[in-house]
Write the C-alpha cells for this entry.
Amino acid sequence: MNPLPLDLQLLNACASLLLLLSFSMLAQRRVVNLVNLLALQGALLCFATVLVALRTGQAHLYLSAALTLALKVIGLPLLLHRLIRRLGVYWDAEPVINPSGTMLIGLLIVVFSFGLAQPLAALASTATRSTLGIAIAVILLAFLAMITRRKAMSQVVAFLSMENGLFFGAMSATYGMPMVVELGVALDVLVAMLVLGVFFFQIREQFDSLDLHHLESLKEVE
Amino acid sequence: MELLLLLGTPVLGALVLWAFGAHRRAAELNVLFSATTFAAACALTVQVIARGPVLVLHEQFLIDAFNVFLVTLTAFVGLTTALFSRPYMRIEAEHGRVGAPRLRLYHSMYQLFTATMLVALTTNNLGLLWVAMEAATLSTVLLVTLYRTPASLEAGWKYFILCGVGIAQALFGTMLIYFAAERVLGAAGVTALLWTHLNAVKGQLEPAVLSLAFVFLLVGYGTKVGLAPLHNWLPDAHAEGPTPISAVLSGLLLNVAIYAVVRCKILVEGSLRSALPSQMMMGFGLVSVVLASLFLWRQRDIKRLFAYSSIEHMGIITFAFGMGGPVANFAALLHMTVHSLTKSAIFFAVGHAAQKAGTQLIDNIRGLLTLSPTVGWGLMLGSLAILGLPPFGVFASEFLILTTAMKQQPWATPVLLLALAIAFAAIFGKVQPMVFGDTEARRLPHPPALLPVFAHLAIVLLLGLYVPPYLAGWYRDAARLIGGP
Amino acid sequence: MGFTFSYLNGCLAMLLAWGGIGLAGLVRPRSVEFAGRTLFPLGALCGAALAALAVASLAVPAEQTVLPLGLPGLPFHLRRDALSSAFLALLGATSVGVSLFAAGYFRRGEGTAPGLLCLEYHVFLASMGFVMLADDAYAFMVGWECMALSSYFLVTTQHRIPEIRSAGFLYLLVAHVGAISILLGFGVLQGGSWQFTFDAMRSARLDPAWASAAFGLALFGFGAKAGLVPLHVWLPEAHPAAPSPVSALMSGVMLKTAVYGMLRVCFDLVGAPQWWWGLIVLGLGLGSAFYGVIFAAVQTDMKRLLAWSSIENLGVIFAGLGLAIVFRGSNLAPLAALALMATLYHCLNHALMKSILFLGTGAVLHATGERNLGRLGGLIHRMPWIAWLTLVGVLAIAGLPPLNGFVSEWLLLQSFLFAGRVPESFVNMLLPLGAAVVALCTALAGYVMVKFFGVIFLGQPREPTLAQAPDGGILERLGLLWLALGCLALGVLPVQVIAMLEPVTRELLHLPALSWGSRWWLLAPPAAGQASYGPLALFALTLLVVFIALLALRVSIRQRTRRGPAWDCGFARLDPRMQDTAEGFGQPIRHIFEPFFAMHRELPSPFDAAPRYRVAVGDRLWTLLYEPLAGIVRAAADRAARLQQGRIATYLLYSFVTLIVLLALVL
Amino acid sequence: MTPLDITTQLLQVLCALALAPAFLGWVNQCRAWLQNRAAPSVLQPYRGLRKLLIKESVLAENASSLFRFAPYIVFGTMVAAAAIIPSMGTGLPMSLAADGIALVGLLATARVFLSLAAMDVGTAFGTLGARREMMVGFLAEPALLMTLFVAAMISHTTSLPLIAAELTNRAPALYPSLAFTAVAFTMVLLAENARIPVDNPATHLELTMIHEAMLLEYSGRHLALMEWAAALKLFNYACIGFALFLPWGTSREAWGPAGLALAAPLLLLKLALAGGALALIETVSAKLRVFRAPEFLATAFLLAVLGLLVHLLLGD
C-alpha cells in the first residue's frame, strides 16, 4: 500500500490537530487561551484550505483561504482580544464541569461522528473525504463546549469553533461551498461578531459581568 | 424588475432609515417603504398570476405557487405592522422606553428584516436561503434587545445563541445537500444548490446523505420554527422585544423558517422515498403542540402566552406537512396564511392592551372592553380566531387537518384533541378576564391604531368563508409540489 | 340564472333576514327603542315565516343547493329535507315567542349594548338554522361553532359578574371540545373519499368498527352540547347566566341541535346504526334524565333549576333516540318510527315549554331582581298573566294530560312497552327497566315543577319588595301566550302534529306511510297494539265535569263565598317565613338520593344568637371527574415547566440531544 | 259506539259518583268494627258532603283564583278517571281516549293541582302537605305505572278495558308477576289514598298528616268537592285493582245489557271485600314516620319492577 501523498498527509495531520484543539477547548478554563486556541484552529483551517486549493487548483479556494485568514485567524481573535481587554475579563477563568466526564462524552461523540461520516465518506469523490468525520466531530464537540460553558465569552468562542468545523466539513466533503454562499456566510459571521460585540457591552452594562447565570431569569419554573 | 423593486426597496429603506431613522417623520418613512414593498409584491403577484412561475437573475430567484402568496403575505403584514408600529413606538418613546438612536436602529433593522425574509422566500439558492435566514436572525436580535432591560438582553442572548447554533446545523445540512447534488449535477458548483435543479434530479440524490442532511436541516431551521424542544428562545424573544417585532417574528419569521424546512423536505422525500422525514415532522409537530399547550396553561405574561400559541400552531402546521398529501398540505399552507394574519393581529391588539394597562402581566390587565372597546374586541375576536373557532380561517385549516388526521393518522387525534382542548382552556381562560370585567385603570388618550387588527381579522374571516380561486390554485399547486408519502 | 322559489331558498332567505336584522342593530347600537320596538318584532316575524315555510315543506321532497362560499372544492352545500324542516319549524316557532318576549325584555337594557345584543341574538338564531340546513361537514361545523360563539357572547352579556364570566368560559370550552369531537367524527365518516359533503358520507360504506368510532365521536360531541351526564357541567352554569330569552333559546332550541345532529349522523349519514349504539345512548339518556331531575329538585336558584330540568328532558329525548336506534338496528322499523316520533315530539314540546318557563323566570327576574327561590313567592297576585301562562308550561313539562308533555311521554312509554320484540333477549330484559326510569323521572319532574311554581308564584311573598312587582308588558305576554297556545295545540292535536312530522320518520327509516290515528282526534300509533289516546275527548270530558260541577253548585246551592284570615290550624300570626322554603321542598329528595349529592351543611350551634342553617348541594361529578382532570393537566403543566428553567446550557443540551437522537435514528 | 256502550259509560260514571262515598264509609265502618269501636254509618260520608255543600265557603285572604279552581279540576279529573276504568263493563267509549298511561297522567294532574292549591295560601301546613304529597306521588306514580306495565305486557295493550278483557279470557293460572305487582299496587293504593301506614285519614296531627294538611284551608263546597274527589280516588284505585287482578265478571260488549246487570252486584261484592281487606290492613299496621314513607314506596316500586322482570324472565 502506497503512502499517501504529502499534501494529504499534511491535511490529515491538520484534521487531527483540529480535533485535538477541539478537545483542548473543551478543557480550557481561561478565556484568553480559548481565543488563542480558536485563532489556532482558524489558522489550521486556512492552512488546510490552501493545501486543498493547491491540490485541486480551484481558484475560489484561495479566496476562501484568504477570507479565513482575514476573518478567523486575524479579525475575530483580534476583536475578541480587544473585547476581553475592554470588558476587563482578561483574567476570567471558569470552572469546567467534571472535566473527565466531559472528555469521556467527547470521546463518545467522536466515535459517533466517525460512524456517521462512514457512509458519507464512501460516497465522496474528494481526496479529503476521510476528514469528514473529523469535521462532524469538531462541530459536535463545539456544541458540547457551548453546553458546558458558563461565561458568555467562552460560549461565543465555542460557537465560532463550530463555524470552523462547518467550514472544514464543507471543504473536506465538497472542496467548499459555491462562492456566493461562502461570501454570504462570511458576511454573516462578521455581522454576528459585531452584534455580539454590542451584546457584550450591553450585558456588562446591565449585569457588570459576562457570567451567564445572570441570564437565567426568563423561565417557566418558579 | 418587480423582484428587484421588491428586494431593493427594503434594503434601500434600511439604508435610508439608518441615516434618518431618528427623524420626526421616520415612522411615516417606514410605512412608505413598506407600502412600496407591498406594491412591488402585488405587482409580482399579478405577474405570476398572468405568467405562472418566474425564474429570474440567473435562476437565483424563483417565484412559484409555494412562495408567491408568502411573499405577498410578508409584504402585507410588513406594511400593517409598520402602520401599527407608528403610534405604538411613538407612545413607547413618550414613555421614555426608547430614545432617538434606538428608534433609528429600530426602523432600519425593521426594513432589513423585511428584506432578509423576502430574500429567503424568493431565493432559489439553498445557500442564499441559509444566508438570508441567518441575516434575519441577526437583524432581529438587536430589535429584541431594543429596550435594554435585563430581561430583554437575556432574551436576545438566548435568541442569538440558540438560533445561531441551530442555523449552524442547517448550514451543515445545506452543505450535505450540496455534497449529494454535486455528484449528480457536476462540480460546476453553480447549479448544485439551486432548488429547481435539485428538485429535477431529486430522485437520483443519494438517500443516505439526504437523510443525514434532513436531520441537520430540520434541527437547524426547526429551531427557528420553534419546534419543541428547540423552541426555548421563542417565548423569551417574543415577550421581551417591542410588540411590532413580536408580531412579525410570530407572523412572518416562523413562516419563513417552516417554508425553508418544507423546501428541504420536498428534496429529501423525493430522494428517500420513505416516510422518515414525514414521521420526524409529525413527531416534532405533535410534541410541539402538546408541550406548547401545557406551557400555555402556566403563562402570566400575555405576550409569552401568545408566543406559546405560535409554537402550538407551528406544531400543527409541521404535523400537517408531515402527514402530507394534497389535503393536509393544502390545509397547512392555508394555516400558515391565516395564522400569520391572526397572530400578528393579536399582537397588535396585545400591544395596545399592554400599553393601556401599563403592564404585560395578565393578572393586571382587566376590563379592556371598558378601557377601550375596540382593543378589547380585537383581542377577543383575535383569540377566538386563533383558537380555531369558525367562521375564521384558522378553523378552516384546522378542520381539514383534523379530519385528515382522523383518516390518515388516527393514533394522533386523541393527542391533538387533548392538546387543542388544553390550549383552548388555557388561552381563553386567560383572555376572557382581560377583555371582560371591570378595571380601575383610566382610559389613555392615545387612540389605538386598530385598522391593521381589523383588516387582518377581516381577511381571516374571509378566508374562513371564501378562498379566492387563484389563492386556492396556488395552494393546490404547492400542495402537489410538496407531495407526501 | 333566475331565482326560482324553493322552500330551501325561502328558509335561507329567512336566515339571511335574521342576519340582516342583527346587523341593523349596529346602526343604532345604543338605542333600546330601535332594537326592542322594531328589530326584535321583525325577527319574530321572520321566525313565523320560517316556521310556516318549514311546516309547509315537511312533506316536500328534499331540496339541495350550493352556495358560492366555503372552502375551495368544498363550497357550502345546503339541503332541506323533512328532518331539517322539522327542526326548522321548531326553531321558527319557538323564536316567535322568544323574540316577542325579548322585544319587551331587552327594553330594560342589559350589560351589552342593545344593538350588539340584537346582532348576537339574531346571529345565534340564524346559525342554528344554518346548522339544520347544512349538507356538508364544513358548513355544519361553521354553523355549529357560530352558534356556540354567538351564544357565548349572549351568555356573557353581564360580563362584569365573575360567576357569569366563568360560566361562559366553561360553556365555550365544553362546546369547543365537543365540536372538535364532532369534526373528527366527520373525518371518520367521509371514509377516505375526501368529500366532506353529506352525500358522499351517505354513500361511503364504512366498516362497522369505523362506523362505531364515528358514532362514539358524534355521541361525545353532541352529548356535550345536549348536556348529557357527565358532560353536563356547563349547562347549569351557562343557562342561568344568560339573559332569560337567551336561556330560553339555548334550552329550547340549541340543545335540540344536538338531537338533530345525532339523528342526522345515526340515521342518515351512517345509514344503518348498530343496535348496541342505541343501548349506550339509552343508558346515557336515562342516566342524565335521572341525574338532572334529582338535581333540579334540590336547586334554590330558579334558572338553575330549569337548567337541570333541561338536562333531564334532554336525557329523556336521548333515551327515546337510543330506543329508536335499538329498534332500527334490530330491523324493527315501525317500532323505531314510534320511538323516533316520541323523540321528535318531545323535542318540539320541550322547546315550547322550557321557553315558557325560562321566559317566565325572566319576567320574574326583571320584576323583582331576584333569582333565589328563597326570596320569591306570591307573585300570582302581582303578575297574574305571567303566572298563569307559566302554569301552562309547568303543567306541560310535568307531563300532565291534556298538555303536550304528556303526549311524548305517552309515545315513549308505548315504545318501551313493545321493546320485548328486540331479538337480543338480554336487551329485552333491560329495556323495560328504562320505562321504569322514565316513569320515575316524569313523576319527579312533577315534583320539581310543583316546587318551582309553588315557591315562586304561590303562597305569601317572602320579601316585602315583591309587592311592587309589575306584571309583564304586552309583548312579554304575547310571546308567552304564543308559546302556551303552542303547548296546548301540541297537546290536544297529536294526530295532526304527528301527521306533519311523519315524513321525518318515513325519510329516516325508509318506511311507507303509516297511519297514526284511527280518527282525527284519536292517536293510535300503528306499532303500539291497540292503545290509543284522545286528548281532546279527555279534555272535553274533564271540562264538562268541571262545568257541570260549577253550574250545579252555582245554580242549586247558591252559597256565598267569604274572605277571611287563613285558618292554618288556628295559628294566629301567619308569617311568610313559616312557609316551606325551596331548600325545605327539596329535602325529601336530598334525603332519599343522598349518595348522589355532595352536600355541604352549615349547622347552627346551640349558642348562636342568630342561628342559621345552610345547605349547599354540589355536583359530585365535579369533584370526581373534572377536578382530577384539571389536576392532571396542572400536574402535567408543572412537569413540563421543569423543562424550561432558563439556563441556556440546558436549552443547548436539548438541541444537542435532539440532534444526536435524530442522527442515531437515520444512521 | 253502540247505545249500550254509551249506557255503560254513563252508568259507570254515575255509579262511581254515587258509590265512592259509600265505599269510603264502608271502609271506615269495617275499620271501626275491627277496632272494636262504635261504627259510623256507611252513609256518614254523604252526610258530611251534604253539610259541606250547603255551608258558606271561607277563602283565605290571599288565596288566588288557582285555589278556587283547583277543587273543580281535581274533581273533574277524578270523574274522568272513573270514566275510563272498566269497573262494570269493558265497552267504554272513553277508554279509547285514555289508556292506562293516561289514567296515571290524570291522577298526577289531580295531585299537582291539589299540591299547588295547598301551597297557594302560604301556610306552614299547606306547603308541608304539598311537599309530602309530591314525595309520595313521585314514588307511587312510577310504581303504579309499572304495575300497569306488567299487565300491559301480558295483554300487549295499555288500554284498560282490553287488559281486563284479555286477562279474563286467559285460562286461570298463577301469574307470579301479577302477584308481585298486586302487592305493589296495594302499597301504592294505601299511600296514594292517605291510608295507614303512610298517612292517617283521621288525624290532624301536624307531624304525620299529608292529605289533610293540604285541605286545611278549604271549607264549604270547595272542601266538599275535595272530599268527594278523595273518595272517588279511593274508589278508582279499587276499580283499577279489580281490572288488573280481579277482572272476572266485568261486563263484555258481547253480553249485552244482561252482562251489565250481572256486573253491578259483582262490583258491589268486590268493593265490599276490598273495603274489608283495606280496613284489615289499616288495623294491623302502624303508621310510619313520614321519613319512612319513601322506603315503603320504594319497596312498592321495587316490587313492581321485580314483577316486570319476572314477567320478562318467565314470559307469562
